[in-house]
Amino acid sequence: MIEEGWLTPESVVGVTAGASAPEALVQDVVTALQARGADEVTPLNGEPENITFSLPKGLRIPAANL
């Protein structure tokens, strides 16, 4: 939740996210800031990521059961 008191007309806000943050969530934050008056969005290209996350062992289906 973005608190109204955190922002002033002169505020500059940076939004960062880790590899596990869904892109939709990041876009929701940007949209919420725009709804509160942000008039300029400047995407910055960071380092490309190609990280994948494995399921915990308890959630994996053994290949023999497929």
SSE layout and pairing:
Blueprint: H1 23-35
Describe the protein's architecture and organization.
There is one protein chain. The protein has 66 residues and is mainly alpha-helical. The protein has a domain at 1-41. The chain contains one helix and no strands. It has one helix at 23-35. The longest helix is centred in the middle third of the chain and has 13 residues, at 23-35. It is elongated, with a radius of gyration of 18 Å.
DSSP summary, beta strand count:
0
What's the shape?
A: elongated
How many distinct helices?
1
- Strand portion: under 5%
Question: Top keywords for this entry?
Answer:
metal ion binding; elongated; 4-hydroxy-3-methylbut-2-enyl diphosphate reductase activity; 4-hydroxy-3-methylbut-2-enyl diphosphate reductase
Tell me briefly what this model is:
This protein has one helix spanning 23-35. It is mostly helical and 66 residues long.
